Every structure is written in structure tokens, then in C-alpha cells.
Amino acid sequence: MSASMAIRHEKITQPWGGILYTSSMTRLHNSLVIFLWVILASCVPGQSDTETLGGPSVPHPSPTPGIVPGAPQLFIFPPLQIDGENGRLYAVAQVNGESKIAIINARDGSLLAAWDNPGQLALDPSRGRLVVDHGAQGVALLDAATGGTQGTVSLPPQDGPPAPQINGRTGMVYAFRGSTVHMIDPATRVVTRSMDIEAPATICDAPSGDAPIYQTAIDPVAGRLYLSFITHSCIPWATVTIYAFDMELRTEIGRMDIDINSQFLPYGEDLFGSSVNRLGPTSFWAWDGSNRRYDESADFQGSLAGMALDRKRKLIYEAVGETIRAIDPAKRAVVAQADVAILAEGKLAGYDPASDNLFFVSTSGRLFLLPADNVFNTAISPITAPSPLPIAAVRSISLAPNWSESRTTIALLEDTHCGGSQLFVMINPTSGWLPSATDTDPNCESVAVAAFSPAYKQDSLLFAATNQPPTILRSLDTGRSWTAAETPFLEGTRFTALLPSPGYAGDQTLYALTSTSLLYRSRDGGRNWLLLDQRIDQVALAGGAGPSLILYGAYGGRLLHSTNGGDKWQEIGPTPNSEPLVMLQAAPSDGDFPLLYAFTAGGRFVRSLDGGASWNLIMEKSSGPVQLAIAAGVAEKQRPIFLLHEKSITASYDGMASVWAATAAEDASRFHPTAIAIAPDFTSTPYLFAGTIDGQIVRVRADAQP
Description:
- The chain is mainly beta.
- The strands form 16 sheets. Strands 19, 20, 21, 22, 23 and 24 form a six-stranded mixed beta sheet that branches. The protein has a four-stranded antiparallel beta sheet with strand order 3-61-60-59, with no helix packed on it. A four-stranded antiparallel beta sheet has the order 6-35-34-33.
């Protein structure tokens, strides 16, 4: 990873106080930003029933992720510009960590191209033109097929202006600065008219001058340009006034006051919208520029989640909360509605007639696809795509020892209902994530930890420890079926670690640790288990098979080791500051002792070069879960090590002899990593994997320091 591959998010504050996110590539000295996101999986919540007006009950439609494993990193920033003739989408996005204009296949969500110089976008599909408003840098006209520059237009500088609009009939471009509209002739690249709009605004009834343009819409059919302004603000109340003008900006047709929580789009002769009242109820309305055509109050509540126009079916889709309502504008009636699960953490972003897909963008920038027919017709199947992960925190990631060949991956996702985890297996990138049938309790999924056999390439063994009831499971078919251990465990046992011996292929040895400091050992591949005498809080394995295997353990403020598989233990000495350890891990070294890494209950991350006899402080931290990912097969002085703690990842490229700064704060708060893992064959596949709080697993190439 080069220094030029770090991401910095810039916040551009809109005149109304909203935030648009863009990203620019910048050199962050002494900083490693881990999250150069490549999506390996996305999320689809489970299904439940909802009612359709005028029809039978239908299940939640399940949108499929628009990005498949192995695709370039793509995080979308709405809105989408849709080319309904050619099945292409245009959006500002992070593509492999760089801010770009992304051109996306509307049928499957794949990335077709990525261009530099992103800004606020408007598309003129009939003329093959893309308009990009760079704010302070003016307006650029691009060839929508090639990205070639057709010219630029200088305008007064402004950060984050509203997106431009295009008159589809004439090709004229409308750009916005403050309360001024600029009409641009793209053929001559000349501003033909500029109009300052007087929109008097008040703050708690006190005059505050003219308001800047807030939202815009254009209706070439009716010949109207709609502009909205926040004309009154007094916490918690606010009013937006929509102005309707003719396309030449010569005449004001009318104006209408609505609630600030509103969304709208034009169709036919009217402007259709939805608003959330100050007190909560939702209203759906139509306005012809001078008079309200209808205003329907709805007895349901929820946040506004987008609108889309379906000219093929002559329908308008309005999303509020997790519900999409299909509105027939001619009948001025809701003809159907259905719940769509992805709306719980995303928005409806558009409809494409060429692919017949509805598009959704999650809050974390992921693109989802759903055939429009599937929203209200269960006979239509969703687009075939790899099964994604649910929306839940990723607790751990495990990679097969032959991951560079098989790509087999295990993910444990938090199950708040049972207090354990759900286990998912990705057999290969085309399989998607498959739920593993480990639930020994029919009412609960309770996997605590899982692991691959170190000889997985030969034996195809997976191990899982469950808490309800407590047992160790074995699978020979990548998690489709499991066999429970023959040894019963104490009721109430909660497993915290499951560690196969590095020499498992020869010694068939595994260790299991519980939350009550009980350490178990199996020497027959997990079928039978023996409770060892020594109580252990944390355990680490070092060395190889048989006599060369060394166990390091901690109990209370003492550090111990065993050279006979855990039958007998010897005390090495106190732990750092005699504090209990919450993490203990070993790595090979070039010296006489394995390297030991530990995290103390007092918040100290430490390293020992002499087998635990002494410790060096690496960093201090207050609290929180800790995970450590250590690259295998790399010399000690060049070994990458990554530490997950407090929503950030700290990196080192010399075995933690020195430390690079953690993930940038904005990236950490946006993506919230909850688990990490490193590719077992790091020399050939130098990837770090990170799980997030919302069910994503992403990867980044991590073989070079910034």
C-alpha cells in the first residue's frame, strides 16, 4: 500500500446545513488508512409478510447486492443519474479509494468505467452529455460515453451547490449558486441568463435575508423549473417554500409552503411529493405549480426514503420508512405497497426502464438492485447474485489455510437474540455467504467460536463451538452438516477460544477455552475432550507438532507455559503490572523464543521477546475489544501486524517494533470495524480483511507501509 492510497473524507456543508461526502486522495504522513474498501459481501435482512393494497399478502422483497465479490471497491454517494436508454448509471463514488465519477451497469451493478474530477452530476441521455458542477471550479461538460471534455463554464465559486438540472427538450443547463440560477447553453458554453431569486427568510419570525436554493427539480413536459428555499426556521419548526418558474426564468408561476422534511419529483403536469409533518404523520400530495391537486394524509409514519419515476408503468414510487407505495398519478391513488427490507438502512435511489431495476443505496454506500416487478409480484424472482450477509456486527473472520486457492471463509455474525453468533461460510466467491446448519437448539443460533483445521486442504474439516447446548462440532462438508463431540460439557459453558494445534495434521490436537477459565484438550480431532487441571484465562500456541508445541497461558496476574501439551505448567512470572490478560497471542521469531503479544485488563498492549520474562509497552488504551492479525511466513523485521481496537486499526510493518497511526477518525466512525483477519499465505495473497458493524467483510492489500 503506497502513501498515495490513503483516503480522506471531506465534508462539504450545504447552505441548509446538510452534508455531502466526497473523497480525495491525499498523503497522510505516518498514517495508514485501512479501509480502502473492496466489497466481498453485502447484506439482505430476513423476510416477513406485509399487505398489498388490493391484493394478497406478499413477502419482503430482497434486493441483491449490485457489487459481487472481487469487484473493485465501490461506495456510492447518491443521487444516481440514470441512462434509461443504455442501462447505465452515473454517480459520484469511491472507486478503490479514489473519488471518481462511476459508470455502472444497471443490470448487475458492475463497474463499467471510472472518471476523474467528480462533482454534482446531471445527465442528458438523449444528447449523450454529462454535466459536472465542480462548485468553485465551475461547470464541466463531458461526453457521457467516453468521459471526454466538451468544454467548461466559469461560475461564481461555491462549495457544494445543488446538483445542476437539464432541460431534456432543449439541452439547456441550469446551475445554482446561492439564490441565483444560471442558464447555460452547452453548445456555446455561454451563460445566457442569470436570475437572482428573492426568497425572504426568517429565523423565529425575525428577517434573515434571502434564503439560498435548497432543492431543485425540472419538468420539461410542463415547462417548469421548481426551486425550494428554507423560508422559516425556528427549532424545531421549519418551512420550505417551493417556487415554480417557466423554463426561460421569465415568469414565476406560483409558490407553495411545505414541511422541511419533504421529497418531490415532477411527472406530467404536476409535482408529486411526500412530506413528514412536524407532529409525525405523512402526507402525499400533488401540485400543478399554482394549486394543490390533492393532499392525502396517511396513517403511517417513517423517515423519507426516496422517490423514483417509472414511466413504463406510469407509476411513481414513494419510499417512507421501510415501505414503498406505488402511486398512479392519473388516478391520484396508491395502487400497491410493500415493505422492502433494505430501506431499513438505505434509500430508494432510482428506477431504470432498460433493466427494469429499482436501485437502493445503503447508508454505507452500497448499491442494491431489485426488479420492479418483484416489489409487488412474488412470481418474479430477484436477480441471481451471491448470497450476502445479514445486517449484523461481524464478530470474527476465519480464512481457510489454503485461502489463496479455495477462498473459503467463515464469518461469525452477532446474534443478539441468543447472545452468541450465526455462522456463515463462503465456499468460494461465486457461492456467496451460506448460513451454516450449526444450530443444535432449534430456537437459537449460538455459535461462540469457529476454526479451520490446519490441514483443511486435505481433510476439509471445520470446527465450531456452541453454547446452547455447549458442545464442539465437526463438519466435513463446509458447514452443511455437523457431528457433535462425544464428550458432554458442563451446562452453562460458554466457549471463548477454539485452537487447533499448528501440527494438527500429525497430532490431531485441539484446545478449547471457556469463559470460566477451563481449558479442554482433544487428541482425536475434536471427538473426545479432556479437562486439564490448570485454570487458564488466555492461551496461545507456539511451535509445531508434538514435543515442539509450547502452550503459553495466563491466569490472574500470572504467566505460565507448558511443554507437554498442557498436562503440567510452569510459572514464568507475573504479567505486566500483574494485571489479568484479555488477549494473548504468539508469533514466530528469529530468536530463541516466540514473540508474545498481550493486552492487559488495564489497557496496555505489550510485547515480549524472551518468552514472557519481560515486556515492552507498545501502546496504552482505555478499553474495548481487541483483535490481532499477524502475517505468517514473513520475516520478523518485516512482518505486518494489525491491531483492532476502539473502532480503528493500528498497523505495523516490523512486528510492532514501531507503530503506524490508526485508521482516520472519520473512516472509523463511518465503517466501524468489528473484526479483522489476515490471509494465511500472506506472501502470495497480501490481504487484510475487516468485518464491520453492519455485516460487510472487506479487504485491502496490506503488504507495504505508507
